[in-house]
Structures
1.
Amino acid sequence: MTRKHKSTKLEQLLEQFIEPTDQWVRREVARNFSTPKDLLIRLASDNVWQVRLAVAMNLNTPLKALKLLAEDTDFRVRREITWNINTPEDVLIKLAGDKIAEVRGGVARNPNASQEVLLQLASDDVIYVRWEVAWNLNTPLKALKLLAEDTDFRIRLEVTRNPNTPEDMLIKLAGDNIADVRRGVTRNPKTPEDVLIRLAGDNIADVRRGVTRNPKTPEDVLIRLAGDDIADVRGGVARNPNASLKALKLLAEDTDFRIRLEVTRNPNTPEDMLIKLAGDDIADVRRGVARNPKTPQEILLQLASDDVIYVLWEVARNPNAPEDILIRLADDNIADVRQGVARNPNASGEVLLRLFDPDNKNFLHRVVDHSNCTIEVLTIAAGRSKSKDVLRAISYSSRLTNNNMNLVRLLYAKDRKLKNSDIERVLTSRNLKVDQ
C-alpha cells in the first residue's frame, strides 16, 4: 500500500468522526497531529469554539486555517493563535492590535514576534501586556529601556530578570525606590561588582540576601554579610558555593541552627568543620553532616550510633558509608533506616542480601532494582527465602529473562511449595515459562 493510499484511508476514517454532532469527538480530531490539513481547515469553521480552539492548538494546522482563526469571534481562539509557534509574522502584527489584552499579551510572549511589534506593545495600556514584553528574550533594547522606566514596579522587576538587560540599565534600576526591583538587580549575573557592593549595605534584608546569591559577589562582601543581623542573609552566604572558608567558619558557629545546617550542605565546607558539626546538639545539623558525601568515614561511624532515626537514615544513604556500617544498618530494627541502605548506590550484594526480608516488603522493589542486585544475588536470595513477598518481588525483577532459566525454575519450584503466592501468575505474564 502506498503512502498516498494510507493517507487517503486515514483521511476517510477521520472524516467519519467530524460528521457526528458530538463536539468532543470533533475536538479530538482537531487535536490529532495526524489529521489531514484540509480537515483542519474545515474544523476551523466549526460552530463550537472548543473545536476551533483545538485546531488553533494543533502545530500541524495549515496557514490558511491559522489566518481564519486569527479573526475568530472568540478571543480564546485568537489568543491560542498567538501561542502557536507557526503563526506567521503578519498574523501576529494584526493580533497585536486586538481589542482584548489577553490576545495582545499572547503576541508579546511569542518568540517570533518582531521587534517592531514588541516595541509597540511595550507602551500598551495594560500591565499584563507590558509584563510579557519585558519577559520576552527577543525584546529590543529600546523597548527594555522604556520598560525600565515603567510606572509599575512589576514591569521594572521583570526587566531586571531579562538576561538581555544591559549593565547601564541594571545600574539605574539598582537605585529604584522599590526593594523588589533592587533585589531583582542583585540576582542578575550581569550586575557589576560595584553595584553588588553598594546593595550589600541596603536597609532591606531581602535585597542583602539577593547579594549573597549572586556568583559575582566578592569574597569580602560575603564575609561581611556572614555577620549580618538577619538570619536569612547569613543563610544566603552559607548556601553560596563561592563562600570562603573564613565565612563558613564564622557561620559554623552561628547561634541559629538553620545556618549551621546550611554550612553542612555547602560543597566548600572542609572536613574539620564537618567533624565539629557532627557533635552539634541539634539533630538536623548532625543529619546534614551525615548526608554530606565529603564526611569522613570515621564520622559516619560515629553518627551510625546516633539516637535520632533520620540521622541514621542519612548515614545509610551516604555513598561514602563503608560496608561494615551498611551491614550493621541493614539489620537495624527501624524500617526507615534499612530503606536508607536500599537507597545507597554503593550497597554491595552482601549488604543487599540482608534486605531480602518480608519485614521490608514496602521497599523490596528498591532492593530488587538496585544496580548491584545481580542475578547471582537474586538467585541466592530466592534460594534462602520462604517468603511470598520476597519471592514475588524477585519475580518482578527486570533482570529476570529467559536467559536466566535456573532462577526461573527455582521460583516455580518455590511457588509450588507456597499457597496463593501469585508467583506463577507473575512469571507467566512475563512469558517466563519452563517445561513442566
2.
Amino acid sequence: MNPKTAEHHIAFAGGGTGGHLYPMLTLAMEFRRRIDCRLTFLTTDRPIDRDIIGATFGDDPAVEIVTLSVKPLPSRVGQVVPFIKAWRASVGLCRNRFATDPPDLIIGSGGFGSAPPIVAAGKRSIVTTLLNPDAVPGKANRFLARRVDVIYVQWPVTEQHLRSGRCVLAAGCPVRPEFASADREAGIARFNLDPNLKTLLVTGASQGARSINNVFIDNADRFAGCKGWQILHLAGQDGVEAVRTTYRKHNISAVVVAYSNDMPDALAAADLIVSRAGASTLAEIATANVPAILVPYPYHRDRHQYHNACVLEKADLARIVDDPVLDDRNGQKLIDTVVNLMADDFARIRMKQQDLTLSNRHASGMIVDDLLRRLAGNEARSLSSVAKRGNSESPPTDDVVAYTTLAGNHRHRRSEEVLLPDVRTL
C-alpha cells in the first residue's frame, strides 16, 4: 500500500502521558476500521509517545510519528525563554508540513502537546477538534477551546467551563473496546493470579506512584493477616523491587510488575482498584465497572484529578482518599479503606450497581461519526481549499503571548452547546 494514495489524512496532536495517548489511539483505530486513511502523530519528545504508538502500529507505512520540541507552560522565569523557542520551533515545523501535506483533520488529545498543531492549522481548511476528558479543563485546553471547531468532553459537568468553545459535545472518553469485553478468567490467567482469591489492583499509572507504593510498603503487616485476597501491584520501574521485596518478606500473595499494557485484563481480574484519578483512567475504570479508591495526584495546582474523582464518587463508584504527602494520616485512611472494602463484598457490589451512565462505551464510534460528517461538510465547502492555502496565517507571536499569559479575561464567543444522544438511551 502506498500511504500517499489514502483517501484521507488524519493528524493526531498531543501525548506525553498514557492518558493523552490512549484516547487518540482508540480513535485512530476506529478511523482505520471505517475509512481509508493515513495517520500522522504530532507528539511530544517524551519517549512514552513513540513507545506506545510504535507498539500499537508497528512498522505500518501509513502511520508517521513526528516529534515536536514543545514544552509545558513555564512555571518559573527561567523556563520562559526555552518554552518560547520550543513553541516557535514546533509551530513552525507544523506550518511547514501543513503547507505541503495538510491533513484533513487534526484531533488534539488535550494538554500542551496539542497546542502547536492546532495553532499552526490557523485559517487553513482543516477541521480541528479537541478531546477534553477532564472534568475541569486545564490551561492549555482553555486556550485551545476557541481555536477548534468542536470539543468532545467526557462528562456534561465540563460544559460550564468551556463557554469559549464554538461547539461542545458531551460524548464520553474513547476507551479501547477490550475494557468492555475482557473477562475475569482471562485476566487472572494473564497475570498468573489465584482464581480462588479476590484481587486488589494497585496502580500509579504508567510511571507508578511513589507515595502510594510507600503506603503499601509501610503497612504491609496489615495485609499479611488478610486472608481470601491477593494483590496485583503495578509499581512503576523505580518502585517494583522495593514493593516486591516487601510483599515477599511478609508472605503476602501478590504479583508485582513495573507496568502493563494489558490494563483491560488487569481491571477484569480486579475486585477493587487503588488508582490515581486521571481522566482516561477513570473512563477505563467506569467501563470495566470496577469499584475504586482514588488517590488524586497532589501536585497539580488546579487539582484536576480531584475534580475528576468527585464525578465517580458522586455516582458512588469510588471513594476518594487524599495523597499521604498532603497529610500523614491519609496513609492510614487509605489502608483502612482498602481493608474494609475488600472485606465487604456487599459494599463493592453496591458500588458496581451505581450510575453506569458514567461510561459511554460508544464514545469512539459517536465521535468518529460526528467527525466524518464534519469532514464531508468541509470538503463540500472547500473543493478548492488546496489552491487557497498559502501564507494567510498570522505570525505566531500573538499566540505565544496568549498561551503563556492565559489571563482568562479574553472576550470569547459564547459556545454553541450541542449534546450528543444521551448515553443512557444507548
3.
Amino acid sequence: MPTKKDIGVTHYVDGYNSWKLGILGFLAQLRGHVTSIILGIPLMGTPFWWPSDWSSQATVNIGGLIGRSSLVGLLMCILCFIYLRRRSVRSLAVKASLHDMSHHLRDQISELFRRTSGSCGKPKKSDAPAEARNIVSFAHSFADKTRDHFRLLTGDSTIECAIRLAHQYPLSGGGNKLMYRTVGRSSGLNPKRKASSQPIPFDSGIPKFFRSEHGGQGVLFYSEITKAIAQGAFLKTANEETFSEEIVTMMVAPLNGWDGNSNDMIGILYVTSRRKKGFKPTQVDSMKFVADALAGAFIAMLGRLHSVGTKPDLTDPNL
C-alpha cells in the first residue's frame, strides 16, 4: 500500500491491496456492502412526486413490460460478452508479451555465456569494449519490450522506457563515486537525449530516495515531477530541461542484486508517460516483476563478464 508525501511522489510497497482504493474499492469491501444496504433501504420507498392514486390511474401492459425487459437484458448480455472478449484478448496479449520478454532475457544470457565459454576463443580483457556495447544493445532492446508490455497493460500509447545501471565513476580529485548512467532507452524517446545524458550520483534524486528512505524496495509513482524536483526527490538534468514534454508522469523501480560485494541497487527502471494520469496502483506488481527479471539478467551477464576478466566499462561516453 502507498506511503505518500506532498512532494509529487507516491511510494508503493506492493499492489496486492490496490483493489481497495477509490470509491469502487470501498464498495467492493464488506463495509461497502453494509453501507449500500443501510443507504438503500430508506431510498426504496415511493418518491414524493409519485401519484398517491397511481393504481387507479394507470394500467400495466404485462406483455410489453416483459418484452422490453427481455430486450434490455439481451443488450446487457451482448455488452458483457463484448467486454469479456476485449478483456480476454488483452489478457492474452499481456501474457504473450511477458513470455516474449523472458524469452529475450534467456536468449541474451545464453548468447553471452556462449561467447565467453571458450568456444569462440578464450575471453580477453580487450573484449571488454565490445561486451559493453552488447550490454547497451541489450538494454535498448529490453527497454522497447518493456514499453510494449506496459502499453498493452495500460492502453497508453505514449509510454516509453529507460534503464540506468550503477557504475563507479572516477573523480577528478581522486577516488570513485557510484553513479547511475542511462544504458537503454526505448526507441520512442528522442535520440538526442544520448548526447546530453548525465549520470545521477547515488546520493541524489531517485537513487537517494530509494536507498535512504525506502531500503531500495517498492515502486515510486511520480505524478508531479516539478514538485518532486523542488523537494529534492528528483534530480533535474539537462534532458529534463530540453525534453520536458516527453515525461509527464512515471513509475520507477530499483534493480536490486549482487554487485560483487553485497546486495545493492545495481540499476533503475523507468516507465514514463506523457499523460497526467498514466499509471495506476494495480500496475505496481507488474513493474516489480519486470524490474526483478531485468535485475537477474544484468547480475548474470555482468557477473559472467567479471569472472572471465572482461569487465565492461560503462562510463565510456561513446556507448
4.
Amino acid sequence: MKKEILVKKIICIVSLVMFALFLIIRSEYKKKQGEVVCTEKQWALFNEGQEVCGIKGCEDVDIGQPKSGAVQLDDNGRNIICIVDSGINFEISQLNGTCIYESEEKTKRMDHGTRIAGLISANDKSGDYKSVLSGVKFISIVVDDTEIIDENKIISELSEAEKMGARVVNCSFVYNYYSEAIYNYMKDSKMLFICSSGNGHNNNIMYPAAYDLPNIISVMGINSLGQCSRESNYSDKIDVAAPCDNILVINDKEELEYVTGVSYSTAFVTAVAAYIINKTDYDSIKIKSTLLKNCNKRYELNKYVEKGRILSFENVIKDIG
C-alpha cells in the first residue's frame, strides 16, 4: 500500500514538472515566432485564468487582444480619437507626440484622462505594458468633475473635433439629467459616441449613454470572472460589456497602477471601434452594428447587458481583417 502511494506521489510530481516545462517551452516558442507574450497583469487583454490582484480569472473572459500586442493603425486620417475627460498628460513618454488638439483649459488632475488614452494607444516604451492600439492621434476635450455639464463648451469643442477628423468620441463623463442640447448635437453628429453607463452597481444608465440614439454605444463593466462588476451600473438595454475591474493603466506620473471603473471598459470599446473606422469606410451606424454583431455572448449576463454581449476584438479582426 505504501509503495503504491509513493508511486502516485512520484507520478504527480513528474506531471507537475512536465507541465511547468511545457509552459516554459510554449512561452519561448512564441517569442521565437515573433509574438509578444501578453503580460499576465493585463487580464483584460488576454485572460488565461491567471491571478490578478488576488482574484483568479476565468479563461477567455477578455477582449481577445492579438498576442502580438498593440495593433498598429494605418496613418490614413482615420486614426483620430476624441477623448472627453479630465485632460491628458501628453508629456509622458507613452503619449508624447500623439496629441493634435487639447482644450486650452487645464485641470489639476489629468490622471483619469491619461489612463484612458494609455489604455487605447501608447507608444511602445512601456516594457511589459501593452495598449490595445498604436498609431492613434488624440483630441482631448476637458470637462470639469462637477454635476452640471457646461453644455455650450462641450458642444463647441466636439464640433471642432469633428471638423478635425474625429470619427469616434470616448465619453467617460456622466451626468444624471437629460440635456436636450447635448441630445440634439449627438443626434445630428456623424461621429460615434462610446458612453459609460456609470459606476454604482445600480439598475440604471447615466447620460449621455441613456440617450436612445443609433450613434451611441452604451457600455457596462465586468470582472475577470465574466460577472457584472460591483462598480458598474447595469441594464438589459446597455449595448456591450467590457473589462472593468483591476485594470492595469499608465497614470499621469508615468507609473503603472491598477484601477477599477466603467470608464476603462469604455476605453476598450472605443479602441475596437477606432480599429473598425481605420480599416473600413463604414458610417457610425455600420461601425456600431459591426462591433455588436461580433461580440461574444454570456447568457448569465442577459439582465445586465443586452443579449449578454461582451466585447471581442478578436472577432472584429476576423470579420473585417
